[in-house]
Write a structure and sequence with these properties.
By secondary structure, the chain is mostly helical. The chain folds into 3 domains: 49 residues, no CATH class; 225 residues, Ribonuclease III domain (Ribonuclease iii, N-terminal Endonuclease Domain, Chain A, Orthogonal Bundle); 53 residues, no CATH class. It has 15 helices and 2 strands. The model has no long low-confidence stretch (mean pLDDT 85).
């Protein structure tokens, strides 16, 4: 009997959604690298070769990626149709979707430039910048999916920018409100319950990607497009497992709030500050202080109301010199155009020496959000591979933060 030398076949892989690192021990025991021998008499030609079989096993992953691309494109079009600060770029002009971490692989990030963040020309902002499909997919994907990426870093970035922009808007909108009242109103705007309400209102719930795909076994939760489970089998599955895992994803409301913050982070990374604020405005958040005439409100005066006259500058300059505030400017290497802000920043609520400006509480309310954003921005700019846990740790332990 003649024996034919055959190439071994490894157990077929069916899930190609995530890149896996091969263990050297497993690679050494790979059956495909060891020849096996069969009698020629028992062999016959297969209708498909090995590469055909591998393609068939890749088909479930291909179908999932196609459905995900469709979902991303729906989100991209929804944002472009409603934000109206940019025109939707044809998909052929967009970069190829890699389903990898956008923050680690993309070299063309804006890196959050330090520019003057004002409301000038904000309402008429027009640009070609818009979030790419890659970063939108990352913004809707949670770590529980076991993909090559997740939304967590985008969520952290979006969260601190949301706090900053809402703080700025409230500071302008309520010039007479104290820090306590501003903090209460800010908490309402940025709360998880409010972000969840916005998710429902804007019909964004269906885009969240939560479940890890399992193709087979007791935890299987995927069906090919066009397939359904018979009612008898479905009832049996529901009775045994207690959930309709083929039809629904089980997730807490906070996950939807996290997705909204991740969207803000995605816009911030891939567009600019103005487009991001326009997106937040479409969501219904208080990010642009408009008056009843739809005009942007002016910056609240820092001086007390009775000093709004021609002598105010001389009065401020006199107090500035008497208290030797020039030493402070020299120490921090910055000269204030309006010395009243410097005076207010050093005025405790219990102080009676300064009757020119309000105390520092409102400025502290605003400065806290500015500091939080700048620290988080610095971390993102200087370490693209940083983990969410490290970001939170460094932010909390940064100098003078809270």
């Amino acid at each position: 009997t003649f024996l034919a030398t055959m190439k071994g076949i490894r157990k077929p892989k069916i899930n190609y959604l995530k890149q896996t690192v091969i263990n050297p021990k497993d690679e050494a025991n790979d059956p495909s690298k060891k020849p096996i021998y069969f009698p020629i008499e028992v062999l016959h030609y297969a209708p498909l070769n090995q590469y055909d079989f591998e393609l068939i096993y890749k088909l479930p992953t291909i179908l999932i990626r196609i459905s995900q691309l469709y979902r991303i494109e729906r989100v991209r079009k929804l944002f472009a149709d409603n934000i109206q600060s940019y025109s939707l770029i044809d998909v052929d002009q967009m970069p190829t979707v890699t389903f990898n971490d956008f923050l680690k692989t993309n070299e063309n990030l804006s890196f959050l430039p330090l520019i003057s963040l004002t409301y000038d020309n904000l309402l008429s902002c027009n640009t070609t910048l818009q979030p790419s499909p890659d970063i939108l997919f990352q913004a809707i994907t949670r770590r529980s999916t076991d993909e090559n990426l997740d939304m967590e870093n985008l969520e952290i970035l979006g969260d601190c920018f949301l706090k900053l922009i809402v703080s700025m808007s409230l500071y302008h909108r309520y010039p007479l409100a104290g820090a306590g009242a501003l903090t209460v109103e800010k908490a309402k705007q940025i709360s998880n319950s409010n972000l969840y309400r916005i998710t429902v209102q804007k019909k964004l719930k269906t885009y969240l990607n939560v479940m890890k795909i399992n193709f087979r076994g007791e935890e299987a939760n995927w069906l090919p497009p066009g397939y359904i489970i018979k009612k008898t089998e479905q009832n049996q599955i529901n009775n045994e497992l207690g959930s309709k895992r083929y039809e629904y994803q089980k997730v807490k409301r906070k996950a939807f709030a996290d997705m909204m913050e991740a969207f803000m982070g995605a816009f911030l990374i891939s567009t600019n500050y103005m487009v991001t604020i326009q997106f937040m405005k479409w969501l219904g958040l208080d990010v642009i202080p408009l008056d009843e005439n739809k005009e942007i409100m002016k910056t609240p005066p820092i001086l007390c109301s009775y000093l709004q006259n021609e002598e105010s500058n001389r009065t401020v300059e006199k107090f500035y010199k008497e208290q030797a505030f020039s030493f402070v400017e020299k120490t921090i290497n910055y000269e204030f155009n309006n010395k009243a802000y410097l005076i207010a920043a050093f005025t405790h609520p219990s102080s009676f020496a300064n009757r020119l400006t309000s105390c520092y509480e409102r400025l502290e309310f605003l400065g806290d959000a500015v500091l939080d954003f700048l620290v988080t921005r610095y971390i993102f700019v200087n370490d693209k591979n940083i983990t969410p846990g490290t970001i939170i740790y460094l932010t909390i332990n940064s100098v003078l933060l809270n």
